[in-house]
Amino acid sequence: MKKKFQAFVLVSISVMTLPAQASAGRPQLYEQRMEVGRALLEVQSTNVADVLPYYTDDIEYHDPIVDIYGIQEMTGFLYQLLGASPDLVTIVEDETLEGDIYSATWVMFGQFLGVPYEAKGISIFKFRPRTAMVYYQRDYYSEGDIMTTIPGLDQAIEGFRTVYRCTVDPTFDCPLAGPFMAGESETGLKATDNPQALRGRDNRLRSPEQLRRAQMKVGRQLVEIHAMNWTNVLPYLADNYEYHDPIVDIYGPDTMAEFLGRLFAGSSELYTTVEDETLVDGIYMATWTMSGTFNGAEFSAPGMSIVKFVDGALQSYYSRDYYTEGDVMLGVPELAEAVQGFRYYYRCVVDPKFVCP
In which domain, by residue range, is 264 found? Predict the structure, then answer.
């Protein structure tokens, strides 16, 4: 299968500037880009050389810790990363391709320098117009998922996650004393309190294009929520709605209402701006930058989200935000040193241009 795929891509690269031909209902270029996106995400230590030709010479790559520019740096990065993680396996879950942008969620597991870990993430790839060549890639995951497996750093990340859950998670049995203890609802708001709630409303009367535009607007609204408008998204949460981020897991629209109320009670100056966004078959994905303060700590962090809609409707039944806790922890003096230490350690191992201190 591997040899068959390699042959397919080599042929596709040689003809990728030709007009796309229909294949199984999809343009040939669409199929090529889907194959390339999956191959770059699922690369392993044994096939690095096979996927490098899919990058342009001026490839730009970013993750929560490293920034790579050019094919030479990208080559060194992949070989060093997978040399430190020879058994690394990445499995693509949801994926979309709209225009020149491929996005996908994934789960990664394996060992990093002998330390086992598992992490969920999301990526965006940008293709050169009318080709299957990637010139930009960004991976989003939380470095906290790796830090939890390293003695010494595990206490810092677990301490941060505990304080965060005590502050925002209404289902968490907080072990801390003091202001974190908030057993009863602080907002008293239920998702069904909004008189304009759309639950149960038949959205299937919309044309496909009308539905798409409306879902795009709702998806963007779910990502760009802030202290002044977060209640407006509650009508768009389905009865079986679930939300996840690197720290919390929320189930049900009423619990989500309480979570958002607590989150923005301590983050009144927190704002999120959507950058790239796609919507395919009821799955919305977007990159964004969040900036402001959380409980007094200033930070600015990039991230990415996925929102899934009920078939033919405006209600979302699932959303997940991907970002790294390290960007927030850097604003906390007691935790900043642990994050900086891990990032130095990681870059020493995988970043070919980093001068290891």
Answer: 153-340
